[in-house]
């Protein structure tokens, strides 16, 4: 599963890249449809031992790290911003998948790109000018993602599907780790998958929230390429390596027994 080097990178000759904009770093993720892979979310990591936790995820073969930036407005919680992203960047060469839960994220984009993000995802609900924000992300040399809250229909991002590298389906209301998976995300993943071309380049489909060994196979079967997992990876029950292995095993077992 994880670590199919370079196979899926749609960024090299992506449409929409603006002349003169920096070229995005290659991303060693499987091509959309060839995964899935698990991205640990640092939101559930022990921030007092951040370096140790990042290294544990890397040693366990994580395909990348998911970083949740919250502003206390778009979501009722605050986390961290560019200085912490830059610190994580110094700790690892893993792809950094930055999820901005921030109102009017445009102003933050240059600092997030400068901090070393590989993928920057903005919410379709967070700005009236999401198309412009996505163009800005690519112009800054990053992959552009668009996210949908649970209450937002898949059709809200349909006009943007040719302009993005990733679509993030929230399977909880964003703001906190450890919430229960909302099954409505499965229908949304299937609806998005049906909107995307059957062959040729297409964005990765990512799911975020409540992913554990029970829900990960469901999300994968519904079309998710990237499975974000916070509390199922970083917890007191088992080491990061064992938790990641359990998630991968659950997905692999379910895929091999699927009719
Ligand atoms: C929630 C964040 C998620 C969070 C997921 O708003 O976007 O990335 O870390 O945590 P779990 O996997 O515990 O639901
Ligand atoms: Zn997230």
Automatic annotation (TrEMBL):
PANTHER family: RIBULOSE-5-PHOSPHATE-3-EPIMERASE
Protein name in UniProt: Ribulose-phosphate 3-epimerase
UniProt xrefs under PROSITE patterns: RIBUL_P_3_EPIMER_1, RIBUL_P_3_EPIMER_2
The enzyme's E.C. designation: 5.1.3.1
NCBIfam families per the UniProt record, alphabetical: PRK05581.1-4, rpe
Region annotation Disordered: where it falls in the sequence: 1-26
Active site: 68 (proton acceptor), 208 (proton donor)
Function in brief: Catalyzes the reversible epimerization of D-ribulose 5-phosphate to D-xylulose 5-phosphate.
UniProt cross-references to InterPro entries, sorted A to Z: Aldolase_TIM (IPR013785), Ribul_P_3_epim (IPR026019), Ribul_P_3_epim-like (IPR000056), RibuloseP-bd_barrel (IPR011060)
Assigned protein family: Belongs to the ribulose-phosphate 3-epimerase family.
Residue sites binding a divalent metal cation per the record: 66, 68, 99, 208
Alphabetic keyword roster: Carbohydrate metabolism, Isomerase, Metal-binding
An annotated Gene Ontology molecular function: D-ribulose-phosphate 3-epimerase activity
Named cofactor requirement(s): Mn(2+); Fe(2+); Co(2+); a divalent metal cation
Gene name of this polypeptide: rpe
């Amino acid at each position: 599963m994880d670590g199919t080097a370079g196979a899926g990178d749609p960024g090299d000759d992506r449409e929409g890249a603006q002349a003169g904009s920096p070229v995005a770093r290659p991303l060693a993720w499987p091509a959309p449809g060839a995964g899935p892979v698990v991205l640990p979310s640092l939101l559930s990591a022990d921030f007092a031992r951040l370096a140790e936790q990042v290294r544990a995820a890397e040693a366990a073969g994580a395909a990348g790290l998911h970083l949740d930036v919250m502003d206390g407005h778009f979501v009722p919680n605050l986390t961290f911003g560019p200085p912490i992203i830059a610190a994580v960047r110094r700790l690892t060469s893993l792809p950094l998948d930055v999820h901005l839960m921030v109102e009017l994220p445009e102003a933050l984009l240059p600092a997030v790109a400068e901090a070393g993000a590989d993928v920057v995802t903005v919410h379709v609900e967070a700005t009236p000018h999401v198309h412009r924000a996505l163009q800005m992300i690519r112009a800054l040399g990053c992959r552009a993602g668009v996210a949908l809250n649970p209450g937002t229909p898949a059709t809200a991002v349909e006009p943007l599907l040719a302009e993005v590298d990733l679509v993030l389906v929230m399977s909880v209301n964003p703001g906190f780790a450890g919430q229960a998976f909302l099954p409505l995300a499965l229908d949304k993943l299937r609806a998005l998958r049906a909107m995307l071309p059957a062959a040729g380049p297409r964005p990765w489909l990512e799911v975020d929230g409540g992913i554990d060994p029970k829900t990960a196979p469901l999300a994968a079967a519904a079309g998710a390429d990237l499975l974000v997992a916070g509390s199922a990876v970083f917890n007191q029950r088992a080491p990061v390596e064992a938790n990641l292995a359990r998630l991968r095993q659950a997905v692999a077992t379910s895929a091999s027994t699927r009719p």
